[in-house]
Amino acid sequence: GKISYWNKAAEKIFNYSVKEIIGKDMHLTIMPERYRKVFLNGFNRFLKTGQKTISGKTFEIEGKKKDGTAFPIEMSISEIKLKNKWNIVGIIRDITQRKEMEKKLKYSQEKYREAFKNANFYKDLFTHDINNVLNNIQSSVHLWSIFQDNPKKMKEMEEIILGQIIRGSKLVSNVRKLSQLEDIQRSMQPTEICKVLKKAIDFLHKSTQGRKVNIQFDISDKNLFVRANDLLLDVFENILINAANHNKNPIIEILIRISKKQKEEKNFLKLELIDNGYGIPDTQKRIIFKSGYKNSKTTKGMGFGLTLVKKIVDSYKGEIWVEDKVKGDHTKGSNFVLLIPLVE
């Protein structure tokens, strides 16, 4: 259809003057290519049969300015017969500002909905981990009183207490950072996996005084970095402490296997923490990471910490799941598997 009328508002919206636009094909001039076929078919059908497809309707599409820029418009179509010829009348509004406002409103709604959802997570994270800290301090104070005549042991207990106080302070800092959604992404940085694991293992040994812990490694490359933050230590500590707490054996055995894995054309670090503990039945494997998971006698309270672990791993755009150490027999122990994006 050729344009026969063009007012000042249309000039302002599309940047074409009346002289430039009159007589030009509307579909080729002010409409992006992806809409042309549909509109041309509807327009030609109307001229031949009088059948109305879009007449009398208001809809949102994109228009095309003189410089080729696409922008959102609202268009109302009607028809009028002049001198025995049908003419299509289009009323067009530039809705760029409205769309920008809608986008900002949607972002704001999503942001605050996510913040509200995460509020409980931050509360749970703090409550769960600060309880661990206080329990470790309480145990160390008790042992400190027992070893009054052993200066070496007393010194060890003092170091554990001090370490737990520092950990509690760090926890407060981490929760404060987590509470700012944008800060989570800004705090991401290349993190050397083996250094974080070493800290978590040191914490495990200090937290399992009086028990034998045997940790072995299967690592093809020790110089591996992932995109993470300080909370990665919290992930490893939770899993390792679970492996110790839910283990009846005289010797706690943990194998840490690290390798690389490619998934959907992305490179991940694959971390397996394999223990000889109680194990987790298949019916529990699917739910232990979920919020509000009710602990069973089999898992003996491990689910709550794992909920926190999963949320942290998710924030890294990673994955976590649990398998049997021995396929088909969960009583032989568990294998917690993590995928975290690698930094090349």
The CATH class of the largest domain, by name, is: Alpha Beta
Number of helices: 11
Unreliable segments of 5+ consecutive residues: 294-304
What is the quaternary state of this protein? single chain
Radius of gyration: 32 Å
Which bin fits the share of residues in helices?
A: 40-55%
CATH topology of the largest domain: Heat Shock Protein 90
Shape: elongated
In CATH, the homologous superfamily of the largest domain goes by the name Histidine kinase-like ATPase, C-terminal domain
CATH architecture of the largest domain: 2-Layer Sandwich
From N to C, what is the helix and strand string? HHHHEEEHHHEHEEHEEHHEE
Concise synopsis of the structure shown:
This protein has eleven helices and ten strands. The chain is α+β, with helices and mostly antiparallel strands.
How would you portray this structure in words?
By secondary structure, the chain is of the alpha+beta class. It folds into three domains: 8-94, PAS domain (Beta-Lactamase), CATH 3.30.450.20; 107-187; 188-344, Histidine kinase-like ATPase, C-terminal domain (Heat Shock Protein 90, 2-Layer Sandwich), CATH 3.30.565. It has helices at residues 8-14, 18-21, 26-29, 33-49, 96-146, 151-178, 181-186, 193-207, 231-245, 282-285, 303-315; strands at 58-64, 70-82, 85-94, 189-192, 212-219, 225-228, 251-263, 266-275, 319-326, 329-341. The strands form three sheets. A five-stranded mixed β-sheet has the order 5-7-8-10-9. Strand 9 and strand 10 (329-341) form a beta hairpin. The longest helix is centred in the middle third of the chain and has 51 residues, at 96-146. It is elongated and about 110 Å long. The two termini are 56 Å apart.
